Amino acid sequence: MTKELTAEQKVKFYQKGTFTVGNRLVDADNRSVQASMERSNAITSGHRACQGCGEALGARYALDTAMRVTGGQMIAANATGCLEVFTTPYPETSWQMPWLHSLFGNAPAVASGMQAAMKAKGKKTRIVAQGGDGGTVDIGFGCLSGMFERNDDVLYICYDNEAYMNTGVQRSGATPGGARTATTMPVGEAYPGNVFGTGKNLPRIAMAHNIPYVATASVAYLQDLEAKVEKAMSLEGARYIHVYVPCPLGWGCASNATINLARLVVETGFFPLFEAEHGKVTATRPIRQRVPIEEYLKPQRRFAHLFKTDAGAEAIRKLQAMCDHNIAEYDLLREGEETLA
Amino acid sequence: MLKQLEGSHAVAEAVALCRPEVICAYPISPQTHIVEHCGELVREGKMGNCEYMNVESEFAALSACIGSSACGARTYTATASQGLLFMAEAVYNASGLGLPIVMTVANRAIGAPINIWNDHTDSMAMRDAGWLQLFAETNQEALDLHIQAFRIAEQMSQPVMVCMDGFILTHAYERVSMPTQEQVDQFLPPYTPQQVLDPANPYSIGAMVGPEAFTEVRYLAHEKQLQALDVIPGIAAEFKAIFGRDSGGLIREYETEGADTIVVTLGSVAGTVKDTVDEMRADGKKIGVVTVGSFRPFPSAALREAVKHANEVVVLEKSFAIGFGGVVANNIMMSLQGTGIHVHTVVAGLGGRPITMPSLHRLFDTALKGELEDMHFLNLQWDIVNAELQRQREQIASGPTAESILRNIQTDTARGTPTPAAE
Ligand SMILES: Cc1ncc(C[n+]2csc(CCOP(=O)(O)OP(=O)(O)O)c2C)c(N)n1
Ligand code: SF4
Ligand SMILES: [Mg+2]
């Protein structure tokens, strides 16, 4: 039996100068699911994602973990989007688990129906639903809220790349202010990319449903993601994990920048990593080395225009203010805590 | 056992006898009594291990049905009108995925103007969505069709819509013969899915299909419907052997022998039509009726056979293809191509306007005299239409149409002109 992972583990070693922990340096019990020969390869190789796709990475780690926890007794419902398309260029499929794609906006409801079928049949098979940010925060939002409110036994995983990538990088409700997308093209001083609305913080909205478990994760912290999925699968009822997944194609960044950006978004405070149970935050991940938002923005062409105009500079100030707000809100600069990197 | 029941309750009890495993629906008039009673039966423990889900929309309801059916659970839902349109994307999806869900549609008009009363616009809007569509004439048939629908759906691995007239059937108390559990068990074996999501044998379902195979996938769906043209009568015959009554099937003929004029219709209005035909036959008039039981698949051959000796067909339908004409009539004209039989379209009963025997008498007499126009609107109040057209000609900013009409009818009534009789 492997030792139970908790989302925020204390680990003594990490390599100097980086914040990564090589699997070789942690004891066997704490190694990534991917380090095991017994991993399930839920999404096996050969899929058609772009190089450096954060979504492919996040989904693989999340699902292999869930497969391990459930002993393979698992079914997935998938919303339309990149993940669906790049995994099933039939006659090939990457899925080595039972998998259903129905529509763009109904994955949470499909999953609810699946868990009802399992209940009716008295089976222990668990259900995972997944979709992109568009499928989750926009078109699937009603179904997701319904699934939460009924506390259906479903783990929903949102892979957030901050736009509708599958259809060519259009704005979603999760696109940050200032970002260029195909439908928020920056024009001079008048339009510095996407508008700054009031925001649509889905993890907080999920928490407002008082569901048993909500967590945010980022593909720079894969063991943390695994631990959160494991935690989620140890619970019953509606659970939600929001995974931050850079998209080199849509963001205009190098394909080897995925992990770095996924780390910077956390280290700036722009995307805080936390866990919540029954509507209360139970753990947050402190920032190890705070960085200003510019460092996160600069490697991405979707933000390049912000560095050219006064309106852009104002947008950067707003984005920094959002980071500052998160840092205060979640107490991300607290001292003296070491966590799994 | 004979029972005096509301149509909705009869349907819910029939569904219960089919041992569904998941029921998921969203309430809308006139379907509400069906799903309320289903919920009651589940809670009273009269549906075994059935899971009854209350969800937040029709889109979610049918989506949940898609999930449960793909997991191999016998699955039922019900809706009407706006609800059917709200789930439209999932309606196509369920049939495309080949999931044998059974859905009652308590037929109701579609707004705007919002209208809760009966017509067939809702089902007809989904006629090409790949579902089989069976229309019930009576409450007994509605009850029976649900039992048959699960058999047909599961045998074909295709979803089936059982269409029953909202209020006219759903809310009518009638005596029905309720089958026993033993009879239903004998007729309807446990569900063995053609495809199922199972960790022991993992499938990917719902992949993207491009031009290389899309037409073939679609054609196969059509082929299944063509097969259903044989399956439906076969299952109706088996049904008769066990339950002892005629129910379902493709079409039903009434007094067609020697009829020069044949009325083709579907749903509950067939009863009124038959009563009218009885009286006309008694007067020696050569008129008969064909009721379409299965609208999808459309029984073209059976229909052609049934009307082949007639001179003309009068299609009486509660649906209307705005900008064109009849929906059912259109299907019938295609079926009768080359036969030389003249087809008249009569649009009637929209939004719950009653279709009465006196107006049917007048209509059919006009047809027998050879004076019926090709496209006729039964009991259309031309004075209202013309007054509104006139008003719109006089005033560019004439305001909302439906509300203006209602206001004018009110004013007319106040002045002593009688409200246009719906009869
Ligand atoms: C009802 C409906 N509207 C629009 C689309 C087109 N569409 C397919 S995927 C997609 C965007 C997906 O975005 P997201 O959910 O963020 O996933 P990503 O591709 O970014 O991973 C859109 C708009 C659709 N398939 N269905
Ligand atoms: S467009 Fe983005 S999300 Fe889609 S496959 Fe490419 S990198 Fe992944
Ligand atoms: Mg996206």
Report on the structure:
The complex is a heterodimer of chains A (about 350) and B (about 425). Chain A has about 350 residues and is α/β, with parallel strands linked by helices. Chain A has one domain (about 40-330): Rossmann fold (3-Layer(aba) Sandwich), CATH 3.40.50.970. Chain A is built from eleven helices and eight strands. The model of chain A is unreliable at about 1-15 (pLDDT under 50). Chain B has about 425 residues and is an alpha/beta fold. Chain B folds into three domains: about 1-245, Rossmann fold (3-Layer(aba) Sandwich); about 250-375, 3-Layer(aba) Sandwich (Rossmann fold), CATH 3.40.50; about 385-420, no CATH class. Chain B is about 45% helix and about 15% strand. Chain B contains 15 helices and 16 strands. Chain B has helices at about 5-15, 30-45, 60-70, 80-85, 90-95, 120-125, 140-155, 180-185, 215-245, 270-280, 300-305, 325-335, 355-370, 380-395, 400-415; strands at about 1-5, 20-25, 50-55, 75-80, 100-105, 130-135, 160-165, 175, 205, 250-255, 260-265, 285-290, 295, 310-315, 340-345, 375. Chain B has a seven-stranded mixed beta sheet, with helices on both faces. A six-stranded mixed beta sheet of chain B has the order 10-12-11-14-15-16, sandwiched between helices. In chain B, helix 7 links the parallel strand 6 (about 130-135) and strand 7 (about 160-165). Chain B starts with a strand and ends in an 8-residue tail after the last helix. The model of chain B is unreliable at about 415-423 (pLDDT under 50). The chains are: A alpha/beta (about 350), B alpha/beta (about 425). At the A-B interface, strand 1, helix 2, strand 2, helix 3 and helix 5 of A face strand 3, helix 3, helix 5 and strand 9 of B. Strand 2 of chain A pairs parallel with strand 9 (about 205) of chain B, so a sheet runs across the interface.
